[in-house]
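Q: I have 387 residues here and want to know how they pack in 3D. Can you give me a structure?
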Amino acid sequence: MFRPQIQKTSTLFFIALFNICMVYIAINSETKVKKVGYHHKVQASEKMEQCLLSLNQNFSFKKSELDIYKTGLMGVNNSLITTIQDYDSSMVKSKLLTTHPNFAAIFVDFFYETEIQSGDTIAVSMTGSFPGANIALLSVCEVMDITPIIMSSAGSSSWGANREELSWPVIENFLHTQKIIKKKSVAYSMGGDNDNGDNLSDRGIEILESVIPENVIFINELNLLDNIATKLNIFRESSKNYSMYINIGGGASSLGSGDDKDTLQVGLINLLDIQDFKFDGFENSIAYNFLKPNNKEKSEKDSIVSPIPMLNIKNITKLVPESYKREFFNKNMDIAKGSLFYKYDSYNAFVILLCLFLSLGLVVAIGFFSHLQIKRRMETHEVDSII
């Protein structure tokens, strides 16, 4: 018995199965969308990559086995300029996470969230412990035209910029001298215990003092409180209109003395966040002066003009999104690619329309073919065979 193609059970089954597949594909389709600040993120990551390439081309040293991206920013466990020797594996991961150029996108996210924009001035305290984060911040400031007023400490904890030949002053001064970055620290202190290198040997202090540029203020007061006061004075003299305070690392002058500073939350912090937060030394820190400047204990001339938010870059494994960590430790993270740059929204209009047209096209094609079959059959005049 003659039956056109469209009447065959196998054809109808195939059409149904095909349409189910098209529906499944359409429902599970996604749209790749550039995240807020995408162009600044790409530019900052590329700028950081440029910094790292230049460092690797101009400095020769044995890279750590932990340095999975071969950036040269992972230091050693101990050296003469190591302020704190740390065996904690989470600290190694934290420092490693900051070494990839994509880490610069983290700062862009925070800047967009707090509406930091071109022309703004920020106050920065950084240590040598997270050279990757330092370079990332400098790269972002470069591409977003933000002015950082920076106080740095020269020493570093384990796995940071703690090679004698490649300390943070050396790295920063090289990048600035090569005109890869325009801004650099306006002042340096020794870092370490009491911000005076009290836990460093005399030889370690000599090494760090020898690499601090001559045109940079060297802060080396008698005690921690005097160091803090001097740094605050420099901040006040440098600008009266800061938009944010950024801390990178665990500098004693920035966060206060004592181990309790490690419990301070990471990421963005404002005045409300510290209402119930107390630990010895914090109220005498630079961070506290920016977060809560107009407290009664300080005179007007001794305080920063107005409170501003703080960005605390520390405990990086808690700071960065889980998606970033998965991409990083799987070694699948290309520069300017990944979850920091793109998001995926449900459904893709192009895919949905394509699936619809394919489904309709299949039905139309089979219908047209069946029409031709019927027409040819009728032209044979075998009418009795047509049912």
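Q: Anything worth noting?
A: The CA atoms of residues 225 and 284 lie 7 Å apart. Residues 5-29+362-385 form one domain.
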